[in-house]
Design brief:
Length: about 140
């Protein structure tokens, strides 16, 4: 049995072990990255699946509501379970509480607290006003 120190100097042996340690660390890092990327891909696929399910459910709701849909001033009432429906319920509640039409400023304050998209709330508020006759409908440019 030959002595390791006779064939390789102690400094060279430490360099080799250091290099091997770096290789192992790099392999572990790459393995963790692969696991993380696989988890991200799985989560993305799950989100896409859920998104497709929600889209199909909304399409189904639209198809069901199309026949007996409540329409006023050319604006249909939003289907239950949609963001528009939630926003309209908020506007109705504000109007009921204040005894006057809900303002966009009040609505945006509540939207900020709920983490809602401001553009969606503004659009839904405008459509809500038209539906209830607070504002004349926008004429089409045909």
């Amino acid at each position: 049995m030959e002595n390791v120190f006779e064939t390789v100097s102690p400094a060279e042996l430490i360099k080799q072990k250091l290099a091997r340690g770096k290789e192992i660390a790099e392999e572990e890092r790459n393995r963790k990255i692969e696991i993380r990327n696989a988890a991200k891909a799985e989560k993305k696929a799950e989100n896409e699946r859920k998104k497709e399910e929600r889209r199909l459910e909304r399409a189904k709701l639209r198809a069901e509501n199309r026949n007996g849909q409540n329409v006023s001033n050319g604006i249909p009432y939003p289907a239950e379970g949609t963001k528009g429906f939630d926003n309209w319920a908020m506007f109705d509640t504000l109007t009921e509480l204040n005894g006057r039409m809900a303002t966009i400023q009040e609505s945006l304050l509540i939207a900020r607290a709920d983490g809602k998209n401001f553009a969606t709330v503004r659009r839904d508020h405008h459509r809500w006003q038209i539906f209830h006759g607070y504002r004349p409908p926008v004429e089409s440019k045909e």
